Queue: 2 jobs
Job 1
Amino acid sequence: MQKSFAMAALLAASCGAQAASDADLAAIRAQIDDMKKTYEQRIAALEQKLVQAESRTASPAKQAPPAPVENRPSVASANAFNPEVSLILQGQYRHAKNIEGRGITGFVPGGEGLNTRGFSVDETELVLAANIDPYWRGQAIVAMADGQANIEEAWFQSLAIGQGVGLKVGRFRSGIGYLNEQHPHMWDFADAPLMYQAMFGEDASYVQDGVQLKWLAPTSLFVELGAEVGRGANFPGTDRNNNGTGGGALHVHVGDDVGVSNSWRTGASWLKTRASERSSDFVDISGATAQGSFAGDSTTWLADFVWKWAPNGNSAHQNFKFQSEYFVREEKGGLTCVGACVDSSYKTNQSGWYAQGVYQFTPNWRAGLRYEQLDSGTRDFGANAANLVVDSYRPKKASAMVDYSWSEFSRLRLQIAQDKSMLGITDNQLTLQYVMSLGAHGAHKF
Amino acid sequence: MKHFIFACFFGLTVGTAQADLKIFATVPEWGALAQEIGGSKVQVYTATTAFQDPHRIDAKPSLLARARQANLLIAAGADLEIGWLPLVLRDSGNAAIQTGQPGYFAAADFVNRLEVPATVDRAHGDVHAAGNPHTHLDPRNVLKVGAALTARMAELDGANAAAYQAGYQAFAGKWQTAMTRWQKEAAPLQGVPVLVHHASFVYLLNWLGMKEVGTLEPKPGIEPTSGHLSSLLTRQQSAPAKMVLRAAYQQEGPSQWIAGKTGMPAVLLPYTVGGTAEAKDLFGLFDDSVQRLLKGVR
């Protein structure tokens, strides 16, 4: 270690003196060789001593083992404390129909629909993470797009509570469901399932500003309970200027292995949010647009299931992953309406699911299929029943993808999909997408 | 509902009894060493098998559940488990085994690591900034790690400190004898040039005085390509290798291809405990590795 430090110092010194002549260089080389020799001799001597010491401890006389000497790299600069940095580059070429105000028929849109076609760069994600001190760890994820930088996540997490308890405070992706915690670069398909778009809008994830408490049971079966409270500002809730909380979630996940080749996890989650003045467009019976504004409670139930298989548990060469999620959402409250409509009650009960399988058949190639379906369910507008059009529709989508990874850090994906999420429109989509990870080697969730 | 959950949180956390030292070993070799030292005083859970690529493990629910209950976590270290262990540690809710705590033990911290890169750039593949992490295949390292691990186990479980020290003494005595035997048996391997699938055997080759003349992976962590394998064939003329080595968890295709083209034997090594039927424990691991290498060179 000292040797490399000395060499680094020498290197640094030689950088300072740009105009070093050949003679100087030769002198430095000779010096380095000298140092190398001395150090190698010293190391050899030390190793010999160690072997002797070890053989001595092996003698029958009872003796404590030699005190361990840790061989840790000694980085003597202040920037050694810099956080782990990684950057995700993601972009795509997309071929699809041009649909203004793209949405999902029968579902209230949670943001603008994705109608980008041709070449585009998705959000560029910058991840910074580090241990803060022995008690806390922090992480921030900033998503950058044209002219804006969004704080996707910014939280700190406990390291020292123990007893299976984990505390997370700040802005975080909620632990509900399976896909909710995953960022787009971890997805197995180029886009999120319709179900997540219908539940949480364009970001396809429920993000909470608040507190998360998790507890892992002390059993060999994985049982994890989680509870969250927070601002609840994101769709299906709205931001409000209030004391107290605007949303909460509870989740339980259970998982285990089956033999050495299979592992699974399943869970159930509950999310409650409150909305006030959540405005969206409705169509009245004359075909004109009416502006409705919802105030009330939204309750979402989720069930998730993941199964992974790899021969002998060695996922490097071959593996298969099946995942499926189901949701039901109930909204109850009132609708304030502007247009050819009146103020009324508002009650909906909607559901949906997806199932997908991804097979990695060689170290570099994977292929996957996904099928999904939503049900616009019941939508009861009370006194407005005669004024507003209620579409009853089952949006469907089927996708197939194949992707190639040069290494763990780079991936190119081709996806074709038939999207029938809008009544009367069949949109055949083609997406060519890349995902590149620079910097720190992030660990991925199951 | 909420009150009920909170009641569960606090009701169940009280009174978790502690019996033996519960050890979570990320890889079989260090699990086996902990068992040699601790004997009946420890309960060892090994997270992976010899047939799994230790770089590429999923942070499975079962691993979280086991890490939650451990008093001591033994990792190979040097970033070998970087793709999954940090997540398991953080989500385990176990304060005792976090990095920097006595309950976190990384074997690579106690040996002289080889192949510490001068520049760290992914253009060179999945390089480990802290050096080659497969340190256990030099039996001298096993002793060094054993000494440090014994001290750590004694620190965590003072009541059994004497038993751990006795366990280590007994193991180290047998190990010294075995090492002398291996070195004598392996004399014909001195200076033998070999190809390897991945740089998993650096410490083994270094110990036995063998020479690695090429890897089937073009860069660490990148799967062998036909172009690279062909270039190895060309190199075979100028710098001929005597055999091609792979670990039990690596695919046999590339080394079989090279073996077929050149006539050199493709040798499967157990790599860690459990990799072959003979490698039942650490002694078996080295016995079998040496025997397989000798068979290959004959």
Note: The beta strands of chain B are 21-25, 42-46, 72-75, 104-106, 193-196, 211-215, 243-247, 266-269.
Job 2
Amino acid sequence: MHAFEYHRPSNVRQAAALLQKNEDAKIVAGGHTLLPTMKQRLAAPSALVDLGAMGELRGIEKKGRAVVIGAMSTHADVATSDVVAEAIPGLAKLAELIGDPAVRHRGTIGGSIANNDPAADYPAACIGLGATIITNKRKIVAEEFFTGMFDTALDEGEIITKVSFPIPAKAAYAKFRNPASRYALAGVFVSKRGSDIRVAVTGAGSDGVFRWSEAEEALAKRFAPKSLDGMSPPASGMNTDIHADAEYRAHLVGVMARRAVAAATGR
Amino acid sequence: MTGTGIGAPVRRKEDQRFITGKGRYTDDLTRPGQAHAYFVRSPHAHAEIVKIDKAAAEAMPGVLAVLTGDDLAADNIGGLICGWMIHSKDGSPMKAGAHPALAQGKVRYVGDHVAVVVAETLAQARDAAEAVEVDYKLLPAIADTATARSSKVVVHDVAPDNTVYEWHLGDKDATEAAFKKAKHVTTLDITNNRLIPNPIETRAAIGEYDMGTDNYTLYTTSQNPHVARLVLSAFIGIAPENKLRVIAPDVGGGFGSKIFIYAEETVCVWASKKVGRPVKWTSDRTEAFLSDAHGRDHVTRAQLALDDNGKILALRAHTIANLGAYLSTFSSSVPTYLYAPLLSGQYDIPAIYAEVDGVYTNTAPVDAYRGAGRPEATFVVERLVEVAARELGMDPAKFRKKNYIKRFPHQTPVIMNYDVGDYGASLEKALEMADYKGFNKRKRESAKKGKLRGIGFSSYIEACGIAPSQAVGSLGAGVGLWESAEVRVNPTGSVEVLTGSHSHGQGHETTFAQLVSERLGVDINNVNIVHGDTDKVQFGMGTYGSRSGAVGMSAITRAIDKVIEKGKKVAAYAMEASDKDIEFADGKFSVAGTDKSMAFGEIALQAYIAHKFSGQDLEPGLKEGAFYDPTNFTFPAGVHICEVEIDPDTGVTTIERFTAVDDFGVVINPMIVEGQVHGGIAQGVGQALLENAVYDESGQLVTASYMDYAMPRADDLPSFDVGMTVTPCPSNPLGIKGCGEAGAIAAPPAVINAITNAVGHEDVPMPATPRAVWHAIHKGKAPMAAE
């Protein structure tokens, strides 16, 4: 790890000002991606702006027909939240499947989303539930937020403050874990909210999280696992690595989608 | 008896300090004035070093020295050695390429050592290492085992076809003849996947030079500190043996990878004199992946010849063994003498012929890893036997039983003379524990859920307790493989045992104390086990090959016997009797036929105060040593049965049941032995289902972190059903066979046999990852692991 300055501002405005002043500064939330990268000297920010002191960024509440989660809420916060468990149990379940206990107690929803790792779980939930990402500057709908592998719509110095998840009628997440890292090899989040049917896929696509529209159309006719029988997305858009070739990944997306729908519909 | 003697499941004495964070590992040690080393490693698999410019690095803050292979050469420091000479079929010696501790002219694998920076702090050393400019001329690389011999790439000039040796064992003509008359031949192509050891504690070293005495000390993560001292002094030439002390304090796991004498440890000792400061290096996890000696990596074609009654007539195997870019310390012996002599398994096979080609590649060196050669042999034998039974339509258990060796001693056609065993007894017990009869019912239940179920056997044998020195000497070993011990009784009757064995997780502090408690009647808390310091222990060959019980404890037993004999003489004076009339039992010396007796502690005191006898008639003191050289290998054997359920939608294999019945001979501490079995099975299941070291075509290690190298986790494993049968080993005084490697040897074929049984064909690679199994189910053919 190279030397860096460390700041721990007490509010979002101070954090934004620090980011503006230090061009190479990075925001650190839970640090579970950034710090290992720095230790390996693959990243060398001049300064870290730690959001950990801001109580305003942590917390989960039901607001109208949405669950709003503060960006610094940990995965464990979400996994064990009564609010989430009651309104969107599939989201609590997703948080419970991230990493290991150490990761879940340090890693945050804001950090995960801002990093947009192509095998992370939260991007699937954001797109699968039609979430809105709220920053210190604006509100961004999920599909416009995730712009490609490790890439988001965030501007320099823009800070995620909250994520708002509309409450669906039915939703669930099914994840096939990478046997080594336990990231998603294929993770599928499905939801139904009125006529809005969503199937979001993470870990499998070669350009990060995506909506599987064919499956959504099939589920629009009937929201049941059977509607997806025999379906899988084309292998051409899938990742290939030592753990899963494109054909196997495409197949797993189909299996995980059916399992997610089954879980969402209690079948 | 004290209740803490042989056979008692005593809790491990060492665990109190380990689980409360009070262990003292090499990295926990800080020497006064200590500086830090960081290695510049090759990012390329194969390249010429055109030039190294160290000026910028030397000018960096805190830098004490930047050293390269040229500096080693200038100081006449020799290269790392391979201590086991293997001769090819044609009688020519193996082709050992030079292995300098810092590269000279060429790098041969990613992670190869190019230079070392020594600085005040680790961060400064690392910063400066990044400033060392190395001008490489890239060369094409070969990483693949099967094609290394036909590659145009030449790793070492001494071996133009990348062939270290073409070795063989057994009777070729007799084997060919048996195959000719065979009614059935089973053929298998087998890849034994490459593994990375991954002990929890990475390697570490502190080299320290004392200018006043001209002595060196190396603190290091070694399984065999005396061997390290011998190699560093006699071969590498860093310091005379009497001027070098090697200390291996608490060591956090080794699995073989800490047997070897590596570049980093060597460089730390040498550099400590150059900079006049203690020099510390601790491997980070990435360095461990890149530079710890890897394990396995065989490609084999194997065949079994059978008559029409299902009797095995002969076995033959041709194996290509990847030895990596350099020959590590014992690497040459692993795919030869630790492999082919086990190809008879538990079976009466009249003729066996094995050919092994050792090859160089642009990959990390490959050497002994838990089981070392024996897992590879067992995988060949147990896959062949299972498939032969299936092809003949015979029950695999009955087929094995039919072919088991039933009379002992049994001379196999491949060196080994099995002394004792009862393979049928282990099989019967395992079949019962595994409820083999109920398998079909369970299979139907799985089918109802849409799952595939399979069962697989592994009827393994291993040769451990290595080894008779004369025997291994005749096979090319550069050292003898005896063990030494010293038993020091203090005047108060407490006991110190100095042993050449080294504990790095095996629980010696407990089991060795149990032996003393059993034999001398001393409370185990009054027994201290001293190991891992060449200044304290006279000599030792260390711990590997499941030898600490069978060989190390036998040496202690011999020393204890001498203590008792001496004690009897002291007792005779003390109780004014003839020493012929002194008996020792239950911690008491007594005069036969009288009620006169003295406790062991009283006699110890008498020995030291020497008031009751003349020092001219009997030497005062109570301290005895022994060297024990085994008369044979020991042959632990057993039957493991694995039962799996597979989800055909995802290819995920779940181990539903795992039964292990082992015959380890006499067991000192059944709890520790069971722990060894558990750990071994976990590693074996890791190899079978998860672990795979993958190099890409350019020689980059794709699996250089836990993000891609899948270690077994607790939830990958079921609760194991562990049982034992006992046939005491006749070749050592305690009847011990050894248990450290059995699980890792037995488990992989049991798991793969279960999966192939479930899938319905044999074409499932190892590791049987979900992807591989899914392809095997749906395509009948799984693609290779690497893209």
Note: Chain B has three domains: 33-139+215-253+258-273, 295-467+632-779, 482-628.
